[in-house]
Amino acid sequence: MAGERGAAGRKRPAAIVTGGASGIGLGVTRRLLSDGWDVAVWDAAQTALDQASAELGERSERVRFYRVDVTDEAAVAAATDAAAEAFGRLDGLVNSAGIGLDAPFDETTAEQFRRILDVNVVGSFLASRAVARHLGRGGAIVNIGSVSGLRGNVGRVAYGASKGAVVTMTQVLAVELAPRGIRVNTVAPGPVETPLTAALHSDAIRAGWHAAVPMARYGTVEEIAAVTAFLLSDEAAYVTGQTLAVDGGFCAGGLKRG
Ligand SMILES: NC(=O)c1ccc[n+]([C@@H]2O[C@H](COP(=O)([O-])OP(=O)(O)OC[C@H]3O[C@@H](n4cnc5c(N)ncnc54)[C@H](O)[C@@H]3O)[C@@H](O)[C@H]2O)c1
């Protein structure tokens, strides 16, 4: 049981959720709190942290908020130490901090591409490395990938490449960390209603997803959080290195639909 690992006397497992103040990360934070985890919420956006803190702050014993940019190596190390100190143990990490870009490949700048890779790939790597150093023997990491890392979605040259890298990084970490009993998996959401999609998805993009997703709707943060919580939990004790699409059937679909 995750609840039996860690420092003596601390029964509740503890996790860090990056990007945990908004969208999918906030949904994961809520779900883990209700599943009995302590949660350290990391986010780069102070406004989102303030809003999440206003919503969840009354559970101040069990949830802590840290302003952290996951691309800042020193800040990631310091916030990992702070969370481990606050909770007396660490058992899990969910890498949900991420940024999107929807642009044709020949209009995508090198600067945009590098920024996407920095946040979505290097940020997940830095947080995973810092947390793995604290995990000892046992624990789990869940990366939030995307179906755009599994398929060639139009306009996703940088974003899709970054999420494809997350899939491969998941496999490498799963193999390297297996001897220490640490599992690493990726959840690859299809389109989900969050502030990110509210900002990026035009009516045309929404219509395209509705046509391409067999279940013909966007997912909810609760649906992504449920699968993430499962992979983080000991219920998934023999699952590592996997990418699980939570996508209403998008990746299963072919061209013939009628
Ligand atoms: N919403 C979707 O349809 C969808 C689909 C597939 C994958 N995803 C992925 O899910 C994750 C969460 O997306 P979301 O839709 O909830 O977006 P969101 O914008 O609602 O939440 C992302 C959070 O990450 C934070 N963040 C961004 N850069 C950061 C950094 N450098 N350091 C720390 N925090 C940072 C933001 O401040 C924000 O609070 C992302 O990795 C995204 O790529 C989302």
Automatic annotation (TrEMBL):
Residues 13-190 form the Ketoreductase domain. It holds the Pfam family adh_short_C2. PROSITE patterns: ADH_SHORT. InterPro entries: KR_dom (IPR057326), NAD(P)-bd_dom_sf (IPR036291), Sc_DH/Rdtase_CS (IPR020904), SDR_fam (IPR002347). One of its GO terms (biological process) is fatty acid elongation. GO terms for molecular function: oxidoreductase activity, acting on the CH-OH group of donors, NAD or NADP as acceptor. Belongs to the short-chain dehydrogenases/reductases (SDR) family. This is NAD(P)-dependent dehydrogenase (Short-subunit alcohol dehydrogenase family). It comes from Tepidamorphus gemmatus.
